[in-house]
Amino acid sequence: TIFRQPSNRKLYLGSNTLFIAELIQSCPFSATGTHYTMTNGGSINSSTHLLDLLDEPIPGVGTYDDFHTIDWVREKCKDRERHRRINSKKKESAWEMTKSLYDAWSGWLVVTLTGLASGALAGLIDIAADWMTDLKEGICLSALWFNHEQCCWGSNETTFEERDKCPQWKTWAELIIGQAEGPGSYIMNYIMYIFWALSFAFLAVSLVKVFAPYACGSGIPEIKTILSGFIIRGYLGKWTLMIKTITLVLAVASGLSLGKEGPLVHVACCCGNIFSYLFPKYSTNEAKKREVLSAASAAGVSVAFGAPIGGVLFSLEEVSYYFPLKTLWRSFFAALVAAFVLRSINPFGNSRLVLFYVEYHTPWYLFELLPFILLGVFGGLWGAFFIRANIAWCRRRKSTKFGKYPVLEVIIVAAITAVIAFPNPYTRLNTSELIKELFTDCGPLESSSLCDYRNDMNASKIVDDIPDRPAGTGVYSAIWQLCLALIFKIIMTVFTFGIKVPSGLFIPSMAIGAIAGRIVGIAVEQLAYYHHDWFIFKEWCEVGADCITPGLYAMVGAAACLGGVTRMTVSLVVIVFELTGGLEYIVPLMAAVMTSKWVGDAFGREGIYEAHIRLNGYPFLDAKEEFTHTTLAADVMRPRRSDPPLAVLTQDNMTVEDIENLINETSYNGFPVIMSKESQRLVGFALRRDLTIAIESARKKQEGIVGSSRVCFAQHTPSLPAESPRPLKLRSILDMSPFTVTDHTPMEIVVDIFRKLGLRQCLVTHNGIVLGIITKKNILEHLEQLKQHVEPLAPPWHYNKKRYPPSYGPDGKPRPRLNNVQLKPIAEEREETEEEVHLLNSTTL
């Protein structure tokens, strides 16, 4: 367990580390009614109301600035105190009981509204994207709002071989030059395809640049950072939601190598953030709001892939930082509601939630595990290559003039994509339709060139399970086109992900894997047909048997490539399982996904989202990383030896003007409060924003508060001369029990505390005297520094020894510390005496 001992303010860790929800029953921040006993250096013993000494709470205290990290512990304590207050009043009247019920059900109401909005917007995006994608090729004259497939549904003049041609659908060549076939028709359709692609891309990037810059990209790296406690104002706002919805349709319709599934998570989180402001329980508490955002991210994946359970697991495995059990239930409910709404809309007309839903009826055989694992190896290699190439390109974009012209970049990428994609029928297709065609098994009603096999003339009837047959010319032609499409998709996806339009990575990665998988599947199928007497095929692949399913290989390859890029495992397998609707293929999927993760981790443990978080410099402590170094808290804390002394406040001998000068001269987010310049014993911690708001509020509402007024953080105001101005009491904004560690605490423990409790800062003390402070930013800088400059100084066996000798020798002085790891350049060893821990001299304050 974790507990804090107020007498010396040290943090103790037992064998089990509790999370935020099971933290301390007595919170340092309360609104009303909380008492606790504090012993400060053995001199003061008092029972204090934490928000006393003020007539009313100060508006704005406890809130956060933009691009700051929330204090999870304080937010959790605020919510617990609010819950206590509601429970204590609910028996007073029927109105209070109604308010209590409303508060209890507000969590379910907000996730219900989020699910409804996410499903409705996903259906709207799907319908609009399909219509605008087909608009690049032609238009339906009988009903302009119909896409190509819908236009020909009611036609009686379509044939089985040319089911996509009907009199109602006109290509642009037919409308402009009156020709349906020939070179002139091909060139005109080519020009119109490029024109519409550039128009959609230009409109999308212009809307993003002018109205909502946060609407670009996937959004998942930023959502992961926000869920970890970071504040990014406007990223989940109404303007971002509206522009992201519109530009997502335009970006998908432009034919760029991107998908809409990742941005749908951002759209759903925008809905959750907006609806959370309707309920005070969530609008006033940043930690509670992140529970809603976790449920919203589950709803986003649910409508993106038609996988409610996969969405819940995605939120748990990939994006959420704090995921209590009640959030699991609400995430499941939000995903269920969103999937139900999307199913009711039925955007694809196939009674399914996604376009590429497939069902296979042929079992897989044991020898197929080898090609499945090879596809996993390919997925891991693709993921490692993509992450390094994309990050290198994004870093170059940030450091060169090219990044200053986002509109030009989008136009260039869209033009190259359209020019190269049109001649190849597989790259001309919408990426979701391409995945559908690659996933689909060849049946008697399929007319795709991928199913152009030489038929057995002796077959007397049409059956569902068609035996393996020799490939025809159409299949070989399709394989060459798929190889070119694979190269094209790999190159263009590297340059497309990260441009200033909404761009998801799920669908392009799945398309690359599906292309590779289909090629491998056809190769194995033909190998089994021509060499069915080989010992690996002899038992299962007899002549005339339906042995190999190439579509299954495409599905496994898609999962492997997506896993290689994102390093998802359990949630990815469940998502693909829900796409196919069969439990029989869980083992191939698990084998491929785990292989891709192992291969990818061999080149780097970061997924694409963690890599972009690090590239953008977001303060995100990844729980998946292990801290294996032997540095101590004293090595990371600020100030360093060459830095100015630590800026602190004293509890009762500073004036308002002194504090305002300190705030203006520094940029720190908070200041330790000590008893006096002589003792320097820790009293508490005051945040910069709370100090500023409290002083401004006191000047407006309290008479007699001037620059020379004494500021008092103590319980009792010291005796002042009669002519002195009125003192300002700020004990209410003081954190009386900040988290502290000693200077000899191993950094692996400090990092674990920051990860588990979501701390903003931690004070470093020595015998109760404040030495410095460690912030989340300091830890991230230290981790990055260790990754780049660490050199081992001891043999491997030395690491198994006890690494932390006693801090003090027989004479009571600190021992010199010997590290197994050092940073370049070599820092001089620390050997402090009792006198050196006094950081402030008499002239500091």
Automatic annotation (TrEMBL):
It is a multi-pass membrane protein. GO terms for cellular component: early endosome membrane; Golgi apparatus; late endosome membrane; lysosomal membrane; plasma membrane; synaptic vesicle. InterPro entries: CBS_dom (IPR000644), CBS_dom_sf (IPR046342), Cl-channel_core (IPR014743), ClC (IPR001807), ClC3 (IPR002245). GO terms for molecular function: ATP binding; chloride:proton antiporter activity; voltage-gated chloride channel activity. Its main location: membrane. SUPFAM superfamilies: CBS-domain pair (SSF54631), Clc chloride channel (SSF81340). SMART domains: CBS. It comes from the Eukaryota. Residues 800-819, 826-845 are annotated as: Disordered. Residues 637-701, 734-793 form the CBS domain. The chain crosses the membrane at residues 105-129, 193-215, 235-256, 263-280, 292-316, 365-387, 407-426, 478-499, 511-532, 552-577. It is found in: Cell membrane; Early endosome membrane; Late endosome membrane; Lysosome membrane. It holds the Pfam family Voltage_CLC. Strongly outwardly rectifying, electrogenic H(+)/Cl(-)exchanger which mediates the exchange of chloride ions against protons. The CLC channel family contains both chloride channels and proton-coupled anion transporters that exchange chloride or another anion for protons. The presence of conserved gating glutamate residues is typical for family members that function as antiporters. This is Chloride channel protein. The lineage of its organism: Eukaryota, Metazoa, Chordata, Craniata, Vertebrata.
